[in-house]
């Protein structure tokens, strides 16, 4: 699995419109990392019979990350991609360092596009706190 930028834009959330708006040009993308499923490799039979979950994927905005997390820029749109890589038995569990040198098929689900954020703000609570502060 990897996660790639959807476009070259940065976004901001407009609370009054309840929508994401373009806020400028994207930051330079972080180096692309692959996440190898911890239970892989799978046989074709296993893939047909069980659900494959990516709930253990970890995301960060820290470009200096040394733990193998996928690095994203906050306030940018991303598309997760699933890659099925055909490996021969001699490859075993060796890590995939160059996807292009492998035999693979990529699956993209357009409904999984998301905007990465690092902090949430409850606009209603903030507005209440501001009005309470003004009334004092």
Automatic annotation (TrEMBL):
Record keywords: DNA-binding, Nucleus, Transcription, Transcription regulation
InterPro entries attached to this UniProt entry: p53-like_TF_DNA-bd_sf (IPR008967), T-box_DNA-bd (IPR046360), T-box_sf (IPR036960), TF_T-box (IPR001699)
MF annotations from Gene Ontology: DNA-binding transcription factor activity, RNA polymerase II-specific; RNA polymerase II cis-regulatory region sequence-specific DNA binding
Domain T-box: 1-123
Major site of localization recorded for this protein: nucleus
Entry GO CC: chromatin; nucleus
Subcellular location as annotated: Nucleus
Gene Ontology BP terms: cell fate specification; heart development; positive regulation of DNA-templated transcription
PANTHER family registered for this protein in UniProt: T-BOX PROTEIN-RELATED, T-BOX TRANSCRIPTION FACTOR TBX20
Name recorded for this polypeptide: T-box domain-containing protein
């Amino acid at each position: 699995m990897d996660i790639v930028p959807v476009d070259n834009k940065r976004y901001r959330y407009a609370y009054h419109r309840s929508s994401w708006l373009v806020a400028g040009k994207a930051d330079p993308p972080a180096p692309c990392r692959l996440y190898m499923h911890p239970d892989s490799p799978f046989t074709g039979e296993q893939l047909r019979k069980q659900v494959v979950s990516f709930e253990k994927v970890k995301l960060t905005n820290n470009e200096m990350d040394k733990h193998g997390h996928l690095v994203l820029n906050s306030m940018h749109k991303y598309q997760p991609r699933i890659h099925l890589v055909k490996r021969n038995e001699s490859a075993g569990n060796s890590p995939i360092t160059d996807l292009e040198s492998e035999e693979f098929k990529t699956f993209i689900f357009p409904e999984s596009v998301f905007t990465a954020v690092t902090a949430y703000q409850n606009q209603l609570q903030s507005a209440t706190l501001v009005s309470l502060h003004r009334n004092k």
